[in-house]
Amino acid sequence: MPTGVKPRQQQHVEAHRKINLRKRLLTQAMPGAVYVPFCGDGDIALACYADRKIFACDIDPKRVATAKERLSIAVIVCADCDEYPFAHIKETIAIADFDAYANPYKAFVAWHAKTKLAKRVVIFFTDGERQSIKRHKKTITLPDCALSVGNWRLQFNTYPRGTMLPFIARIIAPKVITMTQHYLRGASGMVYMGVVAE
Hints:
By secondary structure, the protein is of the alpha/beta class. It contains 6 helices and 9 strands; from the N terminus they run H-E-H-E-H-E-E-H-E-H-E-E-H-E-E. It has a single domain, classed as Rossmann fold (3-Layer(aba) Sandwich), CATH 3.40.50. Strands 3-2-1-4-5-9-8 form a 7-stranded mixed β-sheet, with helices on both faces. A two-stranded antiparallel ribbon has the order 6-7.
């Protein structure tokens, strides 16, 4: 690499684990389009959703350009992923993939409020907020992840089922979560979760 040029930040750690989680739950997906905010270079979308109509966005114009090259028939725009840039579309969304580095919940709430969902939806989350609990020794409240005084150890240890799932269930209602899978990545505190709701 030339002197003075910073390498691009790696988009995924253990990408194979992310893809395997998705492929296990995608067996439950109904026909319909996919929404992929935080799409980055489009590698997860290419590996998992290339057989569907894809609506994707990312805030980084270089990554959007790369994703457009990889997924030429997808609709990909440069936009703030915490907003839902496709409120005008008529397609039914069957899958949503919120592969955010930190907070996927603002994007999730915005999407859910403005989209037409399939009878059964499969939704994926990448959540780095559990790290914040440990780092600050404070609890957080979703979706804004505001810090507050509380039993941070309990929230950290029970975060996927005690914080994430109740919040997701509340937003996705009246649909009910019928299946979940998740894993934690080492000491980083990252949580990777998929849910099926109908």
